Amino acid sequence: MTLLTNWPTVWLMTGMGIGIVFCILIILVLILQFMGSISSRTMAGKKAQAAADGCPCGCGEAEASEADLAAVATAVHLYQNDQHDYESRDCLAQRAESLSLNIIKQSKRFDKDERL
């Protein structure tokens, strides 16, 4: 039994496959470089606008307001101290019980007001 393989054709197909893969990779690299140059041009325009405003974000405001600074300070403080809205089950049960009693009391008051 002889193996009838046309080795030059096999090597030609292998070379063509590898060549196509490398050509696609080169095309992708060129596209990414082109996109990078476009993005750097647009970012340069935004940076020039931000420098003219005096604000690094380009929003037009030179300084943050006191409310913004207070919100950021509170968020950082809570994050660093690991304080969250944790409640125990007993506290929640007591709240639910007192809430239901308040609802009952209010409904009784409402009934008395309707009778008058």
Give a description of the structure.
It contains 3 helices and no strands. With 116 residues, it is an all-alpha fold. The radius of gyration is 36 Å and the shape is elongated. The model has no long low-confidence stretch (mean pLDDT 76).
Descriptive terms for the model:
116 residues, mainly alpha, 78% helix
Concise account of the structure shown:
With 116 residues, this protein is an all-alpha fold. 78% of the residues lie in helices and 0% in strands.
Helix-strand layout with pairing:
Blueprint: H1 7-53, H2 66-81, H3 89-115
Q: Strand fraction band?
A: under 5%
The number of distinct β-strands equals 0
Helix/strand-derived category reads: mainly alpha
- End-to-end C-alpha gap: 112 Å
Into which percent range does the helicity of residues fall?
Answer: over 70%
Largest pleated sheet: none
Q: What's the overall geometry?
A: elongated
Mean pLDDT: 76
- Secondary-structure element order, N to C: HHH
What is the tally of helical segments? 3
Low-confidence stretches: none
Q: If you compute it from the alpha carbons, what radius of gyration comes out, rounded to the nearest whole angstrom?
A: 36 Å
